[in-house]
Amino acid sequence: MNKKPTRVLLGKVGLDGHDNGIKIVAKWLADAGMEVTYLGLHNTAESILSAAIQENVDIIGCSFLGGEHLYFARNLMNLMKEKNIADVKLVIGGVIPPDDVAELEKSGVDAVFTPGTRKSTIIDKILNL
Amino acid sequence: MKKKENRYETYLKGERLPHFRTLSGIELKEFYKASDIQPETESPGEFPYTRGIHREMYRKRFWTRRQQAGFGLPEETNKRFQFLLKEGMTGINFDPDNATKLGFDADHPLTEGQVGLQGTSISTLEDMDKLFDSIPLDKVSSTLIINPPSSAVIFPMYLMIAKKRGIPWDKLRGTIMNCAITQLVGPNLQAVTEFYPLEMAMRTACDVIEYSCKNLTHWNSININAYNCREFCITAIQEAAIAFTLAEEYIRRMLKRGLDIDEFAGRMAFFTSCHIDFLEEIAKLRAMRRIWAKLIKEKYHAKDEKSCLFRTAIQTSGLVLTAQEPLNNIVRATIQTLAAVLGGSQSIHTTSYDEAYALPTEESHKLSVRTQQIIGFETGVCATVDPLGGSHVIEWLTSKLEEEIVALMETINLKGGFLECFTNQWIDEQINESRNKMAEDLEKGDLLRVGVNIFDEEMEEAKIHMDIFKHSPDVEEKRKGYLKQYRENRNQKTVQDSLDKLCELMRSDSEANCIPMVMEALEAKATLGEIVDTFRKAYDFEIRM
User: pTM of the entire structure?
Assistant: First the structure.
């Protein structure tokens, strides 16, 4: 079967610089055969979206540590609707309290990964979105 | 780890470790004996201070219990300080939010959605006064968790509050973190160059060190942040070598400014991690004391013994805390805290068990203080100094780590020193390697974590029965409203004049100390954001985002 590799865009949004998790995930996904672009730190929802459109990705992944996940996830989802790319999947990772995980999932985030999630879990879930 | 059917077989066979290496990869033997080590002749409080920087250590006074705290409005954080002090925290450890750390006021567009989240939002002298309301600055020591260039604003704020309250500066005790490279979020080049030039951060760091050394007696003017590096998944060896070679960058700059090593080395301190490898972490702290003492005496020719003391604050590593079965984190943090005590630390922050989810609640914060109190008052480990000194394995590991750390320091120095290795991304490569190795080791079971990759098979969806910290609503709106009002109630011309003078000074002389002029601007009611913007202007730096 000659399936096109899944294209993933990863990036940190906002001022926070904690990028341990997202760098590890970037490597895991690339090792699993996906095409991964990591945009680094300090992106805005707008810059993530324009890169996603330009790279024609299947999945956008952002990671948060300090409680900014709800605000930025909302921004990202609104922009995705606005730009008419609602078929692109949004994945969020990081230090996120259980109530917020539920809220993110309810509001349309396709997957949420908290610290300690295994490599296989992340890859399986992303490939099956 | 094992499926149900072969569980009993495994138990019958006996459980064992996958290997016998430390976290740094040092292979341990079956056992150690006297012939493996040098005969012990050193006493605590004697050069090179392997056994502790004081002869009496905790027999005379315990380490400082210093839990990091900071969120929301200054008033909210003040309440948490008061609560923790009441429960037995003995020093303050203040953490501002990301905006404050990067020199932005809460009404800057880049801070939207993030105000007061990872720390307290601070912009004005008045904010600082509210933050330390009713706290006797001459009796409680404070650590100000802030990197340059914002450290060159927060530090003067603290001094000005003391002055206003009639407290002489030589009565102030505490620390400003002030490391330009690793304080913000570890050695991450993008993080420390996106919002200001590196040279500006190094210069303001040195301004703080110089001003502090000349005007205060008991204040630590820089804390070399090794902890944040360690949290990037590096080894104990890399943590120590990075910290010391980074410290040497500041030493060289201060000597170049014309200060004598004994004028500032005694006021340089460290912030290190305590990971979960109990033996290695204890040995690491002993080795670090020995290496620092020799470095300062032999390479930099310090005459004052105080200059040679490796004094360190410790935070138990949050890297090993798991979102799965969070109560397990209490056990981990307790063991890490015990290692920090046996390693002879000067102050400890015990990371709270709920930090894989959010900032600590009052309850989990209190438990961290209690953990330290139980170790200090109940276990007896403080009754004699360096209780593990002379243990064959600890002594062997101390010397082995010393050797490895010194070798890596030499490599870094041969490559041009820490700053060179940092800016040319060599450090980043090393970190990436270590980070990927740790992730891989966890995956293949070379590194084990209970509830994560062993004894996890029957875990259903995480069921968490605990209170999680919640931010109060509207912090951002409140801060924006406050700043608007603050800016309206001041003489705009005085503010502008003071900022212009500051800009001129920083432009004209790259070694002129900015602190007195920053004080003038703060007095005129300039905000932190306006002052850091002035720094940027003096360096012709524009943020491109």
Answer: 0.96
